[in-house]
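User: structure tokens for this one?
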Amino acid sequence: MATFLYKLGRLAFRRRHFVALIWVALLTLAGVGAASAPSAGSTSFSIPGTEAQKAFDLLEQRFPGSSADGGTARVVFKAPAGEKMTDAANKATVEKTVKELSDGSEVVSVADPYQAHAVSENGTIAYASVRYEVPGMELKDASRDALEDAGQQARDAGLTVEIGGDALQAAPEAAASEVIGLAVAAVVLVITFGSLVAAGLPLLTALIGVGIGVSVITALANALDLGSTTSTLAMMIGLAVGIDYALFIVSRYRAELAEGRDREEAVGRATGTAGSAVVFAGLTVVIALAGLAVVNVPMLTKMGLAAAGTVVIAVLIALTMVPALLGYAGRKVKPAGEKGRFLGGRKKPAADEAASGNPAPAKPNMGTRWAGFVVRRPVAVLLLGVVGLGAAALPATSLELGLPDDGSQPTSTTQRRAYDLLSEGFGPGFNGPLMIVVDAKASDAPKNVVNDVTSEIKGLKDVVTVTPATYNKAGDTAMITVIPDSKPSSVSTEDLVHSIRDAGAEIKSDTDASVLVTGTTAMNIDFSQKLNDALVPYLILVVGLAFLLLILVFRSILVPLKAALGFLLSVLAALGAVVAVFQWGWLASLFGVEETGPVMSMMPIFMVGVVFGLAMDYEVFLVTRMREAYVHGESPSQAVVTGFRHSARVVVAAALIMIAVFAGFIGASESMVKMIGFGLAIAVLFDAFVVRMAIVPAVLALLGKRAWWLPKWLDRALPNVDVEGESLRTEADAGKDADADEDRELVRV
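Assistant:
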């Protein structure tokens, strides 16, 4: 592989005009496609195989035209102090608001609070339910404006009015902190390279890669039913790996220049060595993201595949466009150790000093000193790292999973205030009603079965209200709404769902009628359960495939095993931090978390996938340099120090860049994006600085030669991918020998 990538890098360097033109053309085509594509609608949320999804599908069949997936709004009214909603003036205001809402072009129905018995017992709070014919995200701006205007007119009449539901839902806004994250990344690159041009290359190529990836996602969003979170995730991952991969290659290029090689040869060797590490690091990320398909949740599968596609683009750009841009940059990208004039003048690279006949003694850099310290005290460093991550992981034992609802919105939003008003007037469970679907088609007496189901549910614990059944035209299917006594995300509500399903199983055995529980709350419960059930198979698949890949890269059994165990420590510690901030509320105000609650259901499996792929980036880039030194004759301890001397600075810079990019999304308006940004940033912090920079060298120092052991039969069976670039060194040595023979022949003559 190193030889192929070496040739590819040199070709891209020589044909840089052609390579740059291809990528610019692809960016232009993707941009035109995104601009001309129809706007994406709302993302359908389905969970195949769950009871809640089966019930939803049954409703679509038995109650056609009911707009089950249409947008909804709850306009909540509260009377002024000392008054009631049943007072004549307040009632007239509400009825006027209901009439105005009914005139909307996309409105299917509006339920009058006084006819639908939607007034609280104390008479101070009432609500009007509005149903639309299209999903909330597809509503026209005119419909949203009409909804807000109607509420404002009622406010002007003296009532407190808040609006809940998904009708006012909008695409998440970009946060200014995302730009700050990129700015931090730029500063880190400038400090790392000491050159504005060298620092700008990774940023430019990453932005081009993300531009292509996100534009393609936008162009296909409507056709493939991709939501806004999909492009946000692709942007987040694409920026991080795009900058890192380019950083790896530019850094190796500067090191090759410092050894005295010409620019084309340096590009080829950088692409052949660091490029090989980039390919395998990218493969681990792609495996982890594409493996999310194992969960069998379409939304999660699409998010994973879209992000994986962006990673593939980042790898291809690193292998082709980075060498091409290095050709354009020419002498503006300095050898390692030499700064641009703008940043402090010129320092002679090692090759120049050696050629002058007065080589200065090499001063150990920070990576060398740190690696030497770890090699001397591996047990202490290992214990400190493991204990520290273990302590950070402790909050994960209290992990509670759920999906965000209006109760998790900031208190400044009208959706959250509507949620609180409904809880005040009708109880906390009113915001999470359960919909019971009774399929009595196979029963001889459908109505008797429905009555039995209603009576059975009324007798269950934690039930406040059971509404009368609504039948379809055939009279063989009924809908019953159950209001729990507890809030939607509570354990009590989850227990109630299971109790209803247990009772339904008994009824089915007696009457052949099916009792299914659905609704947003039940969907969330089923979603969480499905993710929990898929976590272990997903771990086995992703970690297993990556383990085999790392055996191929490192030609070792213990190094990949150590990498996998270190990753698990990172993920558990990061989950503990997420629980501490988003569930317990520690330092919540610092991260803009206004409301604590359960951790998003997909967070554990999502972090496992993404963090595993990203953690292997550092593992591959750091440890391949160690193996390269070991293969070339250094002792195991010396190889660890050599690997850190060449790679520690770059890995630290790459980690800081990733942390900056991910942390930039903490300021996002959408709670899911905020939590993902924090979780990934803290996971990279733990993995890069504790696991890879401390635990990894400590373990390798303790293992010694055993770290690189591989059974002979397996060594013969595995193909030689030559990540270390041994073939390039062999060719160079052969070339030197040929030159020496030629010189001796000339001397004889």
